[in-house]
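so i finally got all the pieces together for this one. its two components total, 1518 residues if u count the protein bits. some of the lines might not be protein, just check the labels. i wanna see the whole assembly predicted at once instead of chain by chain like last time, that was a mess tbh
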Amino acid sequence: MEEIRTGVYICHCGSNIAGVVNVEEVARYVGTLPNVVVSRHYRYMCSDPGQDLIKKDIKELGINRVVVASCSPRMHEPTFRKAVEDGGLNPYLYEHANIREHCSWVHDDKKLATNKAKDLIRAAVMRVSHHEPLVIREVPLNPNVLVIGGGIAGMQAALDIANGQNKVYLVEREPSIGGHMAQLDRTFPTLDCSECILTPKMSDVGHHPFIELLAYSEVEEVSGSIGSFKVKVRKRARYVDENKCVGCGDCEEKCPRRTDSEFEMGLAKRGMAYIPFAQAIPNIATIDKREERLCKAACKEACPIRMNVLGYVSLIKEGRFREACEVMRRTNPLPAVCGRVCYAPCEEACNRGQFDEHIAIRGLKRFAVDYELKMGKHKAVPVERSKEEKVAIVGSGPSGLACAYDLVRQGYSVTVFESGPEAGGILRWGIPEYRLPKTVLANDIGHIQDLGVEIKVDTPVKRLGEIFDQGYKAIFMGTGAGMSQRMGIPGEDSPGVLHALDFLRQVNFGVKVDLGSKVAIIGGGNAAVDAARVAGRLGVEEVTVVYRRSRDEMPAIPSEIEEMEHEGAKIQFLAAPVKILSDNNRVRGIQCIRMEMGEPDASGRRRPVPVKGSEFTVEVDNVIMAIGQRVDKAMLPKELAYTDWGTLSVDPVTLQTNIDGVFAGGDVVSGPSDVIAAIAAGKRAACSIDAYLRGEELSVEEGGKVERLSEEEVTKVKERFASRNRVGVSKLKPETRVSGFEEVEHTYSPDEAQDEAGRCLASLVEGCFECGECKEVCEADAVDFDQTDQIIELEVGTIIVATGYDQFDPSVIPQYGYKKYDNVLTGLEFERLTCAAGPTEGKILLKDGREPESVAIVHCVGSRDQNYHEYCSRVCCMYGLKYAHLVRELTKADAYEFYIDMRCFGEGYEEFYKRLSEEGVNFIRGKVAKVTDEAITDEEKGKLIVVSEDTLLGKIVRVPVDMVILCSALEARSDADHVARLLSINRRTDGFFLERHVKLDPVATPTDGVFIAGCCEAPRDIPDTVAQAEAAAGKVLSLISKGTVTLEAAISTVDEAICHGCGRCEEICTFNAPKVAIKNGALVSSINEALCKGCGSCAVVCPTGAIAIRHFTQDEILAQVAALAEAC
Amino acid sequence: MNLEDIIQETKTYYCLECGKCTSVCPVARYDTSFSPRMMIENALLGFEDELVLDKELFSCLTCYTCQSECPSDVDFPVFVRKARAIAQGRGQRGICAHSGQLQSLARLMTSPTIKQKRLEWLSQEYRVSEKSDVLLWVGCAPYFEPIFEDIELSALGITKASLKILNSLGIEPKLLPNERCCGHDALWTGDIETFRKLAEHNAAQIKEAGVKKIVFTCPEGYRTFKLDYPNHVDLGCEVQHISELLAEKIGRNPDVLGKLKEIKKKVTYQDPCRLGRHLGVYDAPRRVLESIPGIELVEMKHSGLESICCGTSAFTNCDSCSNKLRSERLSEAVATGAEMLITACPKCQTHFRCAMVDKGEEHRPTPKIEIMDLANLVANAIGEGGKSSK
């Protein structure tokens, strides 16, 4: 065993130590201790001559252990280790005794302090003899850097590092970088436009080849240590494809839902799809989806043309009625018509119906178009002809108009040929005016014409060749099924027997129809009900509808049947006419037979069968047959082929007829159906015609799936919302109705409509509810609701934290009236007011739009106050001055600064303060007691009164003003604690992150490789923030430049022979250094030397004593303790 | 104690001189020469004469409004209290109201041999027990009775009501025949010697009585026992205000007082400074009020922490400013539409009643409202058929 030869060196530290500790006496004493070969004292051991003493003794006296007694090891242990190493010894053969902080600085009694110094050095001498040489290792440092926070600090640090061609990952929680500085209007004291100086930097960050910007992302997990951190980042789903989005903002403009804009401090609204501000980087939209929709949007799926019901209902809820019409017109050419006569499959499907009552979607649709018409509809702008081809539409019913509408919007020239005198087809002549007023129809058709569709009336088409000859490249046949079916019973051709369609057509075109006092209508469809109600309006006293099935089977719209009955018509169910009875060429009645419902037939409907011997007679003067319609072949060109049902035969997918280039849809293909089905067919044909003309394959969209809510989902809705039935609409009284053709149903008032629309389940969730409006309007096809959060794993060597600050919420000081009075603002709110791009375009305005006549600026709100934050927020005095300047510059108002002390410490700051005095700003020294609207004089009426003591006058003042700006404190981020844990860094009691040394290491943290910059460390202004960011970048760059990390040598070791592999070390270690695994057949722990910090936690919990920490072994510590114990 | 000690003890040196104390001070609102900030500044600059010889030193209500808002957490009321002790040493006592009777009584009671007939009012109607471990503190009530006869204040009425409540709760308390003044007023006007003697005498009697809990009807006595006695004497028992005791019992069992009579009244509540800002008891009296059937509680514009003082403390410097404050506070009470103002402090009631018999300031009549102690209201609700009443 080697001989231990210890040298001990006692530092005077000038008079710091020697002034209290008798260093000569200590040195003499130490010389007597075992193994001590030399004991010296010297004025400054840390000086070069001091260090040389050690080196010389190593060489000349052959000492192999060194003890220095001086200041704190935190200060100079590294210095002396280095000296020992330079002298040729292993640096770990060194021990440090602290006789300054532990003796001279804390004791007055010189004798006791001297004795204590002797004890501490004796303990060090005893310990040092047990020290072993340790190997210091270096590992490579990953040159990639993580910067957390994309405010000015994070951006500056990222740019500095990236400009050195090092990879930087910049993680920002918000959709855009820029931080608070992007919200500021001007910067003190130079009054530079904040945005002007910031946006070039933002742009540099966005485009830098060495910066990977991860915006709308948050760091979730950090492991590892300096040189090799592993980081997990959650990149939140924007529901927008970043590679496709061009930042045009169309999605935001069309988004039906608005919320307070965070960027504008709630002074303006933003959409759920939004870009926070014009200069955002990345300039990509984000969809603010917070929870899943409560319904399945069954309305949209049930609609044959998939109208965006959620979208327009929600716009109505928000009072944006014109925009609601726009949304409707995007899919529906005839919203006013559908708002009245559609059978509304959407309503039946509406998921709210499972909860209480379905939404009155049809009524809302009607309301929006009616409102638009009432307020003055803007004429539609004609669509530019972008395609050469011309398309002909035959028939101006709903299918023809729909086809024309979609084609003209795709840029085709479209002409509609109508055989009748007016456009509209069955809508014009088949639906009575009390259900669909002519003006309403004309409005919808007018819109289609405005877009550029030409309608030629009184132009029947006999030959298809004619059309093609005129240069049309495709034809759509939408001629309908306008011919009444015959029943085939005796007497059907008697005078006095009418067919419903002829009857309705005559009435609609004003032809007088003579009816007797009793009329029977045969049939149960919409035409039958219409005919019955029209007959009533023409003065018929007794209207009887004869229908062969029961009420449940009646195909007419139920509400229409109900209204018909209200108007006095009777229904004979389960009765079928067998013969029309007439006298003298005049109908006198119908002979009917009773029916009963038989077994269901192939279609699933139960067939009525006659009951033998149940004949009876109904006495009537006229019979109107309404048993169905068919296609009138005589009206159609001869070359077309038909199905067995007498409808046009078309390809089920392309809707092309047997003739190339000729397409057909609507009733002429399907047989009699409803308006929305006809519109859907017209739209499908338009798609097909477009594909045909472009010579492309038709891509078929899959139909929607109408889903119902599960029981659990219904329960969930019930738990959250109270049931509320639909808002009803008023109707004409039946007595009034029958005297004319006035519209029966009234429309909603705006309030009623908003109320009803507010019931829509979809829009009851927070945030985006996936109405899909953005998806519809996005030309780049960037919207992607299937996106999910992504976890991105990064490997970096160093981390800079620049997470910034939160603004103190002054509403916790009720005396200041924030959120109580309209014109009490925070600093950031005022910044947005003066900003040219802000909600008032840079005008300082009160909530009522007036310009203020006087403004008070209240300093130290939440700062320098034991009740809130003790610290000074450092920037408020200066920004308060800036506000006063802006008030004076932009308005004629008086400005009052209520301050305690003016702290104007930076470059040009004091000068700015002086300038403000020249500008006539009133300075009142005093902390404001309260802001109130209780006037006690006439002068105070209608004002906000700021009460304070003017401490320089010793008088309480009440200053009436129009606006109060609260200079709110800067406070630590609300989640600073979470971030601190994530990175193993610390916070001060004020909540901000703790630096390693307040003066000499201000951007480092106690965790190696993690640095802090900007307001996350403490409140500071922009110049200081930038300087700190550059400092942090400098620290990182110096590490990258060195390229390696020196590993701590004093780390844990495991004696594998003793270890049980219990795993306690694994649990306690915050650095993940120990790992328990099977080694040579036994479960044992081993230490990852690159991760171990030598903190010793594992050694403490190790139950067997298998773990030891090098340089802090039991022998070493016990020797030291034993030496100290001698003193007691 | 000298000025420097006071500054050290109350950490007055943290003062930012921001003036918030003055601008929130109810006295400074009416008396423009009164400035807590200036008093502190005088102290910090060592201007003892300016501080302690100024009669304004005794105008502070020690209501704790300033302290509750001070950004530097300066305890101005305690600062004032200690400054008054220096003032007393220099012959300053403030202007004693009611010819100094109340101050004299306190000083008289420091005599160890004085014979009092404190409990002569006690009738068979109330059950008390020598063996009880609960003590009901009677305080100044018997002395107040003749002094405030003219303003129809019955302080003993509050004591009796409290006894009735305690009996209803099944408690037969002990009463001390030879209580002394608690010393609150002496302490707050700087007469430390008187306070110390009273405290020592009381503590000795309570020790002898061997009780576990003392119940107070007066927040001043309560505050003094709870916060000030521990600095001078050892009591060795718990202290509680009657409203806290009631709230606690009602919280555990809403029917603890038996079936209460319905009192159909809209009432408002005056937070006594001692109970409220000094001790933070805001909820208990309100919970008691809400437990009485028919009572509807409406709050005044300023309530809880922001409540306004009744205008006088320690029967000193009861000046025109005091009356303006009372008038303001009574206006607030009337403005609520309440039929009755409930207090939980006999002193508040004294001062408000006093103001209501005045002509009123500036020829405007003082607003009038019926005023009653919380204990009386509860006792009325218990009625004749009270649970344990004979």
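The domain at 3-89 of chain B is CATH 1.10.1060.10 (Fumarate Reductase Iron-sulfur Protein; Chain B, domain 2).
Strands of chain B lie at 134-137, 213-216, 238-241, 265-270, 295-297, 340-343, 370-373.
anyway lmk what u think
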